[in-house]
Design goal:
Homeodomain-like_sf (chains A, B), DNA-binding (chains A, B), Arc Repressor Mutant, subunit A, coiled coil (chains A, B), Tetracycline Repressor, domain 2, 12 helices, DNA-binding, mainly alpha, HTH_TetR (chains A, B), MftR_C (chains A, B), homodimer
DNA sequence: TGTCAATTGTCAGACGCTGACATTAGCCTC
DNA sequence: GAGGCTAATGTCAGCGTCTGACAATTGACA
C-alpha cells in the first residue's frame, strides 16, 4: 500500500471506512512519535513502551503495526526507496543503464519532498537518516534494505536491456557499483553539517561523475 | 588480538599463563559449538543458553566473551577479513588500485584455509557463510562489517597512492565498486550448490573481469 | 601458604517480542 | 436502531537477549 502511494503520489481518494482511517492515523502517529523520539534521544535509548505511550496505545498494538522496533524507524525510508525505484522506471527507454540510474537519482532527490510530507515532515526524515547512519544496528538493517532495493533495480535494468538477469552479470554489477557510489556520497553527507537535500543531491552527482576517472588504470594526482 | 594473529599468521609462541590458555580454549570452544549449532539447526533457533550449556559455562560467561549473540557468529569471518586486508597490504606498490584489490582477493582466497583452521574447520566456516547470507539479521550485520572493512581498504588504497582520503573520493569509490562486485559473486555462490572455495574464487575473478564491459555506454548483447 | 586479582556463577531485572484470550468498537443487516 | 459479526485493541503470561551487582572460585606470585 505504501508502495502504491509513493509510486502514484496519491492517497486513495475514497475516505474508506472510519475504521480504516483510524488505522492510518494510528500508524502515522506511531511513526511520527517514534522518529521524534529517536532523533531527540537516540534509537537505543527509546523504548517501545515510550512510543506506544506517546500515542496512547498498548505495546502490543505497536507490534501489530510494526514487526519490530526497527521497522518503524524505516517507515519514511520505505517511501523514499519506492520513490527512487519509480523514478528509474520512468526514465526513457533509450538511456544507458548507468545514465538511467544517475538520472533517476537526481529526479528522485528533486521530488522527494512532496512524496514524503504526507507521512512525516521532510526535515524529520533527514534527521532520521542521520540517526540511521550513526546507529550501528540501524545502519546494518539499512544496508540490507539497500541490498534488497538493488536487487529490484537490477531486475529493472535487465528488463530495460532485454537481458536475462540470471544469465548476464552486468545488471547486478552496474547496480552494485552504483550503490557503492551512492553510499559513499550519503556517508560523506552525514558527516558534514549541511542539512539540505540539495547538498546531498549535488554531492551524489559529483561522485557519480567520478566513476570513470576512478576506474582508470593510473590515477593522476 | 585476533587481528595480529591473522596478519602475522602466528599464535603467540610463549604459552603464556595457564589462565590465558584456558581463556583461549573456552573462547574457541564457544565459537566451535556456536557455529556447529547455528549451521545444524539455524541461527534463530539456537539460544545462547544452548551454546553455553554445550561448553558447560554459564550464560553470563558467554556474554563476557562476546558482546552479543551475533558476535560469535562472525568469529571466523573476522579472521577472514583480517586475512584479506593483510593480503592487500602485501601487494606490490606499483600496482593500480583495482588490480591490487583483485590480486589481494585471489591471494586471500588461495590461502584462507591455513589462516582459519587454527580456529574452526574451513568447511564449517564455509557452511557458516551460507547461514549468514540466508539469515536476514546476520546478513544485515555482515553488510555493516563489510562496510567497515571497506573503509579500512580505502585508507590503505589512499596510502598506496599517496592521496588524502578526505580530499579525494577515488579511494572510497574504487573500494565501494569493488565491494559491490564481490557481494554479487558471493551471493551467487551462496545460491548455487558448489561448496568449494575454488568455485567462489573463480566466480569472483570472473565478475571482477566484467567491470569494464559493464560500464561501457552501450552493452552488446 | 597466604594474599591479590582475575574469572566465573548466581540472581534480579530491563527490554524486545509473541501467543492466547478477553474486551471494545466499527460495520452491516433486518 | 437493536443485535450480531468481525476487526482492532488491551491484558497477561512467558521466552530470549543482554546487563549490573555481588558472591564464590581459581590461577598468579610473593
Amino acid at each position: 500500500m505504501t508502495t502504491d502511494e509513493a509510486v502514484a503520489g496519491t492517497t486513495t481518494p475514497p475516505p474508506a471506512g472510519l475504521r480504516e482511517r483510524k488505522k492510518q492515523r494510528t500508524r502515522a502517529a506511531l511513526v511520527r512519535s517514534a522518529l521524534e523520539l529517536f532523533t531527540r534521544q537516540g534509537y537505543e535509548r527509546t523504548t517501545v513502551d515510550e512510543i506506544a505511550e506517546a500515542v496512547e496505545v498498548s505495546q502490543r498494538t505497536f507490534f501489530r503495526y510494526f514487526a519490530n522496533k526497527e521497522e518503524v524507524a524505516f517507515a519514511s525510508q520505505e517511501s523514499a526507496e519506492c520513490h527512487f525505484f519509480a523514478a528509474l522506471c520512468a526514465r526513457p527507454a533509450g538511456e544507458a543503464p548507468l545514465a538511467a540510474l544517475r538520472g533517476a537519482t537526481l529526479d528522485a532527490w528533486g521530488s522527494i519532498g512532496g512524496a514524503l510530507e504526507q507521512l512525516v515532515p521532510p526535515e524529520l526524515h533527514m534527521r532520521m537518516y542521520r540517526v540511521i547512519e550513526s546507529t550501528p544496528s540501524l545502519l546494518a538493517v539499512h544496508l540490507r534494505r539497500i541490498a534488497e532495493l538493488e536487487e529490484r533495480l537490477a531486475r529493472e535494468i535487465a528488463r530495460r536491456e532485454g537481458l536475462d538477469i540470471d544469465a548476464d552479470p552486468r545488471p547486478r554489477l552496474v547496480v552494485a557499483m552504483f550503490g557503492g557510489v551512492i553510499r559513499v556520497a550519503g556517508k560523506l553527507w552525514t558527516e558534514g553539517d549541511e542539512d539540505s537535500v540539495v547538498t546531498l543531491r549535488d554531492l551524489t552527482a559529483f561522485h557519480l561523475d567520478y566513476v570513470g576517472p576512478t576506474l582508470a588504470e593510473k590515477w593522476d594526482k
